[in-house]
Write a structure and sequence with these properties.
This protein is an alpha+beta fold. The protein has 28 helices and 22 strands. The radius of gyration is 28 Å and the shape is globular.
Length: about 725
């Protein structure tokens, strides 16, 4: 035992020493710190050939693009049969799938299986988009913006040009009838016009039970090994019949092998990898801690409320909060890692060096290796006033803006009219106070606001009080007890006591009282002694001042980021992919396990592991199983279930297919591991993993449990 204690003490000493002696100036950026989310505008043919030994031609990328789909405005999907069958995640389908639930049904509990085409149910308002056309509009947009003098003028000119481009292309025969969207890459370094074929007749075909689609619940979320059947099937119809398409990913239920290359095609939502270190430090110190605090307190309030309400929609909202809590928590942990921030700083240093070389007349750097692996300690120098000097000041200007943003963060955040943050009634008091101000200064605007002055219908009084108490507690910690807003709100009480007092004494839930105030005019509203209106009179002017300042700073930031993105593209070209923008991307990786928790995570799991989790937790939620899953055939236990790969995904990639070199579907992405969560600002493939359902698992579940032979035959034949 004494040897073990001595070893532990030695390890602790070495670890602390290593952390305290980290020299950021010696850290180098990684080759793929900016990620691998390649665009279909400029597909990485040569890179794929060099890395994986196969040469995909333009037809290969075209077929992949045409088989890929955007699922509504929040997920990804793909065609997986010639008859319009669409595959996506269960968690993408959960809300739309349950919307076709009929009286007496509970599809979360039972799942849904259409035995015939006639039983497939049309989902109201659901659509999928297929990308058909791409047009580079960079030169045109940037030329239009160059006519603007101020940041505001440049942004206005950009929006005007976007509208003109959409109108012009929308009248061309080959673009007519398509959904047109302008896509911004590199924060404005490049622009494209995308044309989508939108399919509005989408019908539910098969959806597992919630307990299988979200097996393990929040405890297993963002972890691996995983045992979730996070898949669903829909079908696109055209003129009342299943869509006939030549572009789809054929199912290969036996296609996963360790170290084999796989490709994810989907619509990653948002990354911020081009953010400067100064901006990331702002996120670390202020923005993300606030978001985490907000989500935690509201999730707790909803949990207490739903213990009695038992509402599926509230439970979905809680799932969303818990998912976001883990995601932002992992991101914050990454931002607090001095090594990862040192890598971002190393990239900035190298970027400045390379920018100086390129803008001094040297050739554009065309590969990622030189710019990443050679990141050193040098700093770029330039003649004062030169183009290089102006560009290198981008980082300083962005940092100055961040310093200004810090000054306004508290008032702009804690006093904002955000119902989730402050509760419905306090936000309504904010709106009523603004109406009174507009009635005095801008009667036309006040008249427009009138229709909004309907007192909110509270979901639950206790929930409203919990939200208000959470807001007061958060604002007290941020603003301090001597702040006039806090003094007026608390008046010597605790946040919980003050919230109860304020709601017991306000009249803002009485529409008749509100109408009377409006009739009497702005003086009556401004002079009313309602406690929530009294608070709003303190907070509104402060919020308006902070909001105006932040809006101006954000406008400058947008233009500066655009200039930085343009410089990045000028220096590195397409060797660095742009940040995610919920636009179609393809990224590459290999099927591979990783070391974790003192052991090794296998590259794949099996259904046997699902039952191990079930029995290990004594069948308790969230590891419980529906009745039909309790006596599985022996053949099922041996089948692969989930697997991990080194692909680069983020929110929005949910529902993305994983394909092999033959364009066969071998998996369905649904999660990342905990180590992937800093991926919002940096991609570190050492332990970053994408978690997917094996297509073999999907077939096995349908064959052995759901008896969905019709769908199995459609996917893989008999």
């Amino acid at each position: 035992m004494r040897y073990l204690l001595a070893a532990l003490l030695l390890f602790e000493t070495v670890f602390v020493s290593a952390q305290s002696t980290l020299n950021p100036d010696t850290v180098k950026a990684g080759q793929f710190d900016m990620g691998k989310m390649w665009t279909f505008d400029t597909p990485p043919m040569a890179y794929f050939q060099k890395t994986y030994g196969f040469t995909p031609d333009q037809k290969w990328f075209d077929e992949v693009r045409l088989a890929s789909l955007r699922f509504a405005d929040y997920c990804s999907a793909s065609f997986v049969s010639a008859n319009g069958l669409v595959m996506t995640n269960h968690h993408c389908a959960r809300e739309s799938g349950t919307s076709v639930q009929r009286k007496g049904e509970n599809l979360n509990e039972t799942g849904f299986i259409a035995k015939t085409l006639a039983e497939e149910r049309k989902v109201p308002n659901l659509f999928v988009d297929q990308l058909l056309k791409i047009e580079d509009i960079t030169t045109r947009v940037q030329s239009a913006m160059s006519n603007g003098k101020s940041e505001t003028e440049q942004l206005q000119l950009r929006e005007r040009e976007f509208a003109a481009i959409k109108q012009e292309f929308g009248n061309q025969p080959e673009w007519k009838g398509l959904e047109l969207q302008t896509i911004t890459f590199y924060n404005g370094g490049r622009y494209a016009l995308y044309g989508f074929k939108r399919y509005n007749d989408v019908r539910l075909v098969l959806m597992p039970e919630l307990q299988l689609g979200f097996f393990g619940g929040d405890p297993d979320n963002f972890t691996y090994p995983r045992y979730a059947l996070d898949f669903s099937f829909f079908r696109v119809y055209d003129n009342g019949k299943p869509l006939k398409t030549a572009h789809f990913f054929k199912f290969n239920p036996n296609g996963i092998k360790e170290n084999e290359p796989v490709f994810v095609t989907g619509n990653p939502g948002s990354t911020e990898r081009l953010k400067t270190v100064a901006e990331l430090e702002y996120d670390r110190d202020l923005r993300i801690p606030y978001i985490l605090q907000l989500l935690r307190n509201r999730a707790d309030a909803l949990q207490a409320y739903n213990a009695k309400a038992k509402s599926d929609s509230i439970q979905n909202e809680i799932f969303s909060f818990e998912n976001s809590l883990k995601a932002y928590g992992g991101q914050l942990e990454g931002l607090r890692d001095p090594y990862l921030l040192a890598r971002k700083a190393a990239f900035e240093r190298q970027f400045k060096i390379d920018a100086r070389q390129v803008e001094s007349g040297q050739a554009k750097l065309s590969t990622g290796s030189g710019r990443s692996n050679d990141a050193g300690n040098g700093t770029a120098s330039a003649t004062p006033g030169s183009k290089v000097d102006i560009n290198l000041k981008l980082w300083d200007n962005l940092a100055d803006n961040v310093t200004e943003l810090r000054k306004h963060f508290k008032d702009n955040t804690y006093l904002s009219p955000n119902e989730l943050a402050r509760g419905d009634l306090l936000v309504f008091a904010h709106l009523l106070t603004m109406y009174a101000e507009a009635a005095r200064q801008n009667p036309a605007r006040a008249e427009q606001m009138k229709e909004l002055l309907q007192t909110p219908k509270l979901t639950d009084r206790a929930l409203e009080e919990a939200y208000l108490a959470a807001h007061l507690s958060e604002a007290q910690a941020a603003l301090g007890n001597d702040d006039p807003y806090i003094k007026a709100a608390l008046n010597g009480k605790s946040p919980k006591e003050a919230a109860a007092y304020l709601l017991n004494n306000t009249k803002l839930s009485d529409q008749g009282y509100i109408n009377d105030l409006i009739t009497k005019g702005p003086a009556a509203i401004s002079g009313d002694n309602d406690p929530l209106l009294a608070l709003a009179r303190i907070s509104v002017p402060r919020y308006q001042q902070a909001s105006a300042a932040v809006k101006a700073i954000s406008g400058r930031q947008t233009v500066l980021r655009s200039n930085l993105g343009r410089l990045l593209y000028e220096v590195y070209g397409t060797a660095i992919p742009p940040d995610a923008t919920f636009s179609l991307r393809i990224n590459d990786g290999v099927v591979k396990g990783y070391p974790y928790n003192g052991t090794v995570a296998p590259y794949q799991t099996t259904f046997a592991g699902l039952y191990d989790r079930y029995y290990s937790f004594n069948g308790k939620f969230p590891w419980s199983l529906p009745q039909r899953w309790l006596n599985p055939p022996a053949q099922l236990l041996r089948q692969p279930m989930c697997f991990v790969s080194t692909n680069d995904i983020i929110g929005g990639n949910s529902g993305s297919p994983l394909i092999n070199k033959n364009r066969e579907a071998v998996g369905l992405a649904f999660d990342g591991n905990m180590e992937s969560l800093p991926g919002s600002f940096i991609f570190v493939p050492d332990k970053n993993r994408t978690v997917s359902v094996n297509t073999g698992a999907i077939v096995a579940a349908m064959r052995y449990i759901y008896k969905a032979e019709r769908i199995v035959t459609e996917l893989v034949g008999k």
